TrEMBL record:
HAMAP family: CobS (MF_00719)
Organism: Streptomyces anatolicus
Bilayer disposition of the protein: Multi-pass membrane protein
Record's protein name: Adenosylcobinamide-GDP ribazoletransferase
EC assignment: 2.7.8.26
Keyword Cell wall biogenesis/degradation: no
Key words of the record: Cell membrane, Cobalamin biosynthesis, Magnesium, Membrane, Transferase, Transmembrane, Transmembrane helix
Membrane spanning stretches: 38-60, 115-136, 142-165, 186-204, 210-227, 239-259
Role according to the record: Joins adenosylcobinamide-GDP and alpha-ribazole to generate adenosylcobalamin (Ado-cobalamin). Also synthesizes adenosylcobalamin 5'-phosphate from adenosylcobinamide-GDP and alpha-ribazole 5'-phosphate.
Amino acid sequence: MPRTSLTDGIRFAFGTLTALPVRVTRWDRDAARAGMQWAPLAGLVTGLSAAGVGGVLILLGAGPLLAATATVATPAALTRGLHLDGLADTADGLGSAKPAEDALRVMKQSDIGPFGVLTLLFVLLAQVAVLFQLYQRSWTEGAVAAIVSATAARLALTLAARTGVPPARPEGLGAAVAGVVPRGRALLVTALVVGAAGAAGALLGADGVVRAAAAVVVAIGAAETLLRHCVRRFGGVTGDVFGGLAETAATAALVVLALG
């Protein structure tokens, strides 16, 4: 097996976690390991794009509500709604109260049930509400929030792919990336993202440093809580669970940034 290159890992991260036209050159455990370690980079690019769209609309004279809506819509477009779909399916699986095997079948169905609809509604409302509040203060606050939340969302995926987290099914994206990232490397990536978030928060002053770093910590805490519950209920992770973790982390980060 050839040695995994930096390019292989980045291609894997962008090719599986975004809808950008990036060709995945290798689809094996080594490439998955490198790719999931680079997942926050895909989040950073997604967040920068979202912040850019919001900024352009504000420059063109749009109000903060439209800018907030477009900022939330951009990551959905850049992932073809993959994470939102995963969130809805995970909510339906958990809400079904069925045994693991039956709940997993519920999650594989193409339609969205009532739990999924309600979860999507409240999550998207919360995200738009927070960004509306922040854009009312300044574009900078909204932009920092978009970038930090998107990066934290993909950091949650790095942590969910760490050693010891099993797949719920023998096939699919969950099986491809489950348990590939060594725990020490996952913690290193976490430390780097928390530090980078704090640096980004410096644009908002000393209080911004603390809030941005805290937003990432709370985000991964919320995602970890959901992850553990899903592992107990489903026996492991699936691609849908990864999507649910990303949206949970992003929303938690935004809520923290709205406080204070």
